[in-house]
Amino acid sequence: MVSDDRKTLRRLSAFLEVFGFEMRQATGWPEALGALEAGPAECVILDAGGSIRQAFPWCGQLRDKTARDHVHVLMLVDEPGPRALTEALEAGADDFLTRPIVFGEVLARLRSAARAVEFERRLREQSDVEPITGMPSRAVLLEHLARAVGRAGQGGASSCVLLDIDFLDAVNRRHGRPEGDRLIRAVGEKLAAMPAPWIASLGAGRFAAVLADASEEDAAAWADSIRQTIATTEFNLGGADRPVRLSGAVVPVRAELSAQQNLDKATDALRWAKHSGRNVVVRSGQFAEESQAWNELVSQGRLFEGTIARDVMTPCTLVLGVDDPLDRAAALFARSRLEILPVVDGQGRLAGVLENAAIVGMSPADAASPVGALMETAPLARDEETPFDELMEFFRQQPAARLVIQRDGRPTGLVTANSLLALSVPLGSESFAPAEPFSTTSDFLLVPDLTVADEA
Known about the structure:
By secondary structure, the chain is of the alpha/beta class. It is built from 16 helices and 17 strands.
């Protein structure tokens, strides 16, 4: 959204973010252009202020900056006359919002904008020319693939090749999307100049070709020669010459599949190239044995073969002594947010466990009492070498239990059913975000494993 009215920016941004829209704000046109160079937008809400005509040049500049993608322009205006609206449409506006802003209308207009953006995307897919490179588009590739499918049905051999610029997203983040587009264009020009069959551009740094009368082996050799040529060519990026790497995939065109399905097969093979470290060309089925072995490992529940308790436990960095006063135990529970702590004897061996619940609400008179007076003396414990499968079976029978893991009788870790289940939960940067506000104390630096801290 572009507006010199900061209150309008704040109010509309707060409203739209509630409904899941990702917003960027600019108070002037230069700032808006900078934001668009940093990352693409699908819709721009342009506050025309008191004069609708002053926004006309901005619409033109926006169209120039976003020529590769359709950006829907919603112009925020006062009550204008029909002539001004017509001129605004001719200048490049797509739709209008009027003051005072009606939030329900904003959502309805954005829904229409999303449909328009999707229409333009589909229209680009049908175009014969990819806009960044000027090379044949996806639509042309699918036509060639359809003919190759027909030849395959008559016994002819054809291969589909995909080539993808490695780490293009990093280029866009570091140097801006316009610089990334220039790199795509430069690589496309290099590919088009090579003595080879025509090459299509699928967008986002991906290129493709259909090699008629070419076996998979010959097509793979051709693709790898292109990869090596690009790898030895430097491209200007951010004012400096830098190397570029390609990942590639080759699949034989199959008669029983449609053109799109054959392209999907090539896309799947390209993922193997990326997963193999990039800068490599892979063939369809090249890793079939690895894939089969992996599927067998998963289907037979053998993923955690060789995993033992030591590998998955939460290490014990805090323990209590049997003679420690209960007020020290209360302080450790408060700082660690754990619900259970191992208790050791004078030789450091496991003597029991103390639960936080056992000392909650204790009287001041009990604060000096020893931990040994309230600890559980028969803790549930397993050795570090206990297999993972045994741990899972134990928690199937006792899901609320907490296990102390030990080595030579000394506690080394804790395991709960939740801590094992948490291994399969994707982690994000916020997974262990602090529950308390920022603090300059050392306690703020303590990051507990909440799967052990919480109730199982």
